[in-house]
Amino acid sequence: MKIKVIDQVFFRCNESDKSKESIWLLHGFADSGLAYKEIFDSPLAKDFNIYVADLPGFGASPIRPAAVSIKQQSILLSQIILKETNKERKVNIVAHSLGALIGTWICQSLKDNINFFFNIEGNLTEADSYFSSKPLQFDSAEKFSESFHEEIFEIAKLEERYKRYYSSLRFAKPEAMMNWSRTSMEHIKDDKCGHEFNKLDCKKLYIWGDVDTPKETQTFIKKHKIPNRLYTNIGHWHMVENSVILYKDLHEKLLTT
Questions:
Q1: Confidence at 19, pLDDT banded by 50, 70, 90
Q2: Where are the alpha helices (DSSP H) in the chain?
Q3: Cα-Cα end-to-end distance for the chain
Q4: Less crowded by CB within 10 Å, the N or C end of the chain?
Q5: Region 116-128: what's the mean pLDDT?
Q6: Model pLDDT for residues 247-257, shown as the tens digit of each residue
Q7: What is the predicted pLDDT for the residue at 16?
Q8: Short-list 25, 116, 106, CA closest to 72
Q9: pLDDT of res. 72
């Protein structure tokens, strides 16, 4: 694994071979690229160029004044992907949680360049915004950040899967969390994000577990016949809780479809 900074966005990546397809991985709310660290030990790293982002305001990436909203960040990432990839090779997107909104918009913007979109527990319905809507309950980003740190720290004492999330949360800028929350709500209202994902023309798969996925979202998946893969007894962070099997399955899917 090596580090690459592109337009002030921090990426973890492997030794790139431009003749291969690329996989771009996007984290969720208040998270960072640490969520995907096992991918560099997976079969995917041998056959694909891997780019794991710390999105602006999260992890090691600074806030970008020109890319404050979650929509603006999708535009920035689309531009970076076009600049960095072989125009003759397709691009694959993996996005988690609220970051899947960015993934969906990248697939819309780069539709002719996209091969596959893997949406891991991304927002499909309003019920999925159980973390990302919390900042709106506070008068300031700093007050929210303090409260959210305390909440996640207490959960991390009891649940292993939250420990890495808390590590990433420590680097999340309060203003960035508030910006994501404020600017995502209009796209989540009336399940707009789910309908946008459903309308994508590229190959796509919604990955979910039965531990944390809300009943409303499970119903949405069935009602709209969304291509999906259920992993039982797995929670929100499949790439942390179920990394070996997840990346093995993604590798097989990309090589056989």
A1: confident
A2: 44-47, 70-84, 99-109, 141-156, 161-169, 174-188, 192-199, 215-223, 238-241, 243-256
A3: 27
A4: C
A5: 98
A6: 999 999 999 98
A7: 74
A8: 106
A9: 98
Tell if the pTM clears 0.85, that is, is over it.
yes
pLDDT tens digits for range 212-229? 999 999 999 999 999 999
**226, HSE (Cβ side, Cα atoms, 13 Å):** 29
**CA gap 228, 156 in Å, rounded:** 29
Token duo for residue 212: 């944390």
Residue with tokens 């929670």: 235
Helices 99-109, 192-199: crossing angle, 10 deg rounding: 40
CB 105 within 8 A of CB 129: no
CB 16 within 8 A of CB 49: yes
Give one word for 23, left, alpha or beta, with left for phi > 0 and alpha for psi -120 to 50: beta
